[in-house]
Amino acid sequence: MARRKFSAPGDEIETRHPVIVNRYRGFTRVNHWITAACMIVLLLSGFSLFHPDLFFLTKLFGGGQNTRWLHPIVGVVLFFSFVGLFVQMWRLNLPRKEDVEWTANLPELVLKGDESKMPELGKYNAGQKVVFWGMSVMIVVLIVSGVMIWEQFFPKLVPIPVRRIAVAVHAFAAFAVILIFIMHVYAAFWARGTISAMTRGTVTGGWAFKHHRKWLRELAGRSDGGSAK
Amino acid sequence: MTDRAPQPLTAAANPPVQPLESNLLPSDVVRVSATKDVPKPDRQLTEVAKLIDVSKCIGCKACQSACIEWNDTHPTVEENVGVYENPHDLTPDMFTLMRFTEYENPETNELEWLIRKDGCMHCEDPGCLKACPAPGAIVQYSNGIVDFIHENCIGCGYCVTGCPFDIPRISKTDHKSYKCTLCSDRVAMGQGPACAKACPTQCITFGPKEEMKKHAEERIEDLKSRGFEHAGLYDPQGVGGTHVMYVLHHADKPSLYAGLPDEPAISPLVREWKGPAKTVGLAAIGLAAVGAALHGLFGRALEVTEHEEEEAQELVDETTPGAPADKGDA
C-alpha cells in the first residue's frame, strides 16, 4: 500500500458514483464534538468570569460557585480531548510551500469568493493550519496558566506574583482562542458543504475537488480508495 | 423605634445596654466588586483605622484569641515546628496572626525581636475588590472597612491574586474567601474590633483615622527620642493609604517585619487585566463576530458548482487504478 502523503488513515472514497469522500472517521468526529462541547461550556463560563457584565452567564451553570469549579474541570477534559485531535491531525497540518501561494491569494477569496487562483491543496489549507496550530499553542498556554490559578486544587502551586502573570496570560490566550474559534466556525459555514465532514463524516467529490484537490487525487489513486462499497 | 448605634471612637468602648440598630448600612457602601455605578451614599461615615504599634507588642496573641472568639472560628490544632507563629499562617479560620522576626541590627549589633500582627490592611484602594469577578462579593464602606460578603463569593481566588499583602484565604470546606472584617459587625454597633479590645498593652488602638494618625505621631516622637531615628507610620500611599496602620521602629525598612511590603500597590498586571483591556477584548471579539456575520450575509459563499462535481467524477474515474471497481456502479 502506497504511503499517504496528503490524507489520513480512514480517508477514502466512499462511493464513486456520485463521488462521496470520507473525510473524518467516527472516532475523529466524536473526538471533535467532545472538544467542541467543552469549548462552548468553557467560553460561556469563562466569559461569565471575564467581565462583570457577563456574570449573569453563571446562571447557566447554576450560579457562581458551580461555574468556578466546573470551568477548570471542563478545561482539563478539553485539553485531553484536543490532544486526541492533535495526534490525528498534526502531520497533515505541517506547513507546505503551497500554503504561501494560498495565503497570497487569500484576499481574492475572502473579498470576491474567487478560488480560481488557489493552488491545489492536500487535506488542509493554510487557514485551517492557522486554526490548528493557533488552537494547539493557545490550549497549551491555557492549561498551564489555568492550573496555576486553579485555587481549589493548586492554591500554592506558584507564588502570587506568578499567579498575576498567569491570570493575565490566561485571559489573553482565551481571547486569542475565541478569535480562532470564530474564524473556524465561520469558515466551516462559509465554505458550503464543509459541515457534513464533521457530522456525517463525508464531503462531496466536488467539494474535495474544489478545496483539496491533491487530497482527492491521492485517495482516487489508492487501490483501497473506495473499494468494497 | 430604637436608635442607631454611635460611631465607635475607641477600642475600649463598652457594648451598649439598650437595644440599638446597626449603624453600618448597605447604603454606606462606596465600592462594590464587579459593579459599576455604585450610588453615592447619602452620608459619609467617619473614616476609622486600627493602629498597631509594633514597639508595644509583647507577642501574647490575645488579639488572635479574641479574633477567634468573636468570629467563632475554629483553627485546627497544628504541630509545633519550632517557631512562634501559631497557626503556621493566616487561614480561613485565622484572620490575624502574630508574625515573629529575629533581626540582628547591624548598626547596634543587637538582636531585635520584631513582632507584627498580620491581617487585612483595609486598603483605601483594595486590590481584592478590584480583582473580584463576583458582583457584591467584596464591598468597601465609607468608613474604610473592606468586607467580604460571603453569600456572593464564588471561591475563585482572584482576591488572593489581587491583594498586595497576601491576606485572603479560601476555605476548603465552603469554598469562600475569608479575612479580617475589622469587626465590621462590632463597629456597626459602636464598638471597636475585638483584637484591639483584648490587647493588654494597647499596642492595638482603634478610632477615627485622623486621631489614630495623631496618636501615632506621639508614639513616633517617643520612639525617636529613644534612639529609633527611623521610626514612622506605615500608611502606604501606593494603595491609597490603609485603615490598618502600623507604627514601626524601622519604618524605612518595613520588609524587616516578616516581609511587610515596602511599597505595596495593586500590581500593574492586575490593573491591566481588570482594566480597559477587558472592554477592548470584548469589543474585538464582538467585532470579529459581527464581521463574520456581515461577511456571511453580504459576502459570496464558497458554493461547490455542478461543474466541479463533474470534474471530480472525471478525476476519480480517470485516476482509479485497477478499474473493476465497486459493484459496477462506476
From TrEMBL, chain A:
Instruction: Name the membrane topology term.
Output: Multi-pass membrane protein
Gene Ontology terms describing biological process: anaerobic respiration; formate oxidation; respiratory electron transport chain
- Give any Gene Ontology cellular component: formate dehydrogenase complex
Q: Which cofactor does it need?
A: heme
TM segment ranges = 30-49, 69-87, 130-150, 170-191
Sorted alphabetically, the keyword list is: Cell membrane, Electron transport, Heme, Iron, Membrane, Metal-binding, Transmembrane, Transmembrane helix, Transport
Family, as annotated: Belongs to the formate dehydrogenase gamma subunit family.
Q: What is this protein called?
A: Formate dehydrogenase subunit gamma
Q: What organism, scientifically named, is this protein from?
A: Paenirhodobacter populi
TrEMBL record, chain B:
Any one of the GO BP annotations: formate oxidation
Entry binding sites for [4Fe-4S] cluster 4: 132, 153, 156, 159
Note on cofactor = Binds 4 [4Fe-4S] clusters per subunit.
Please list where the region (Disordered) is annotated: 1-24, 307-330
The residues that hold [4Fe-4S] cluster 1 are 57, 60, 63, 199
User: What keywords does the record list, in alphabetical order?
Assistant: 4Fe-4S, Cell membrane, Electron transport, Iron, Iron-sulfur, Membrane, Metal-binding, Repeat, Transmembrane, Transport
Listed NCBIfam families: FDH-beta (TIGR01582)
This chain's protein is named Formate dehydrogenase subunit beta
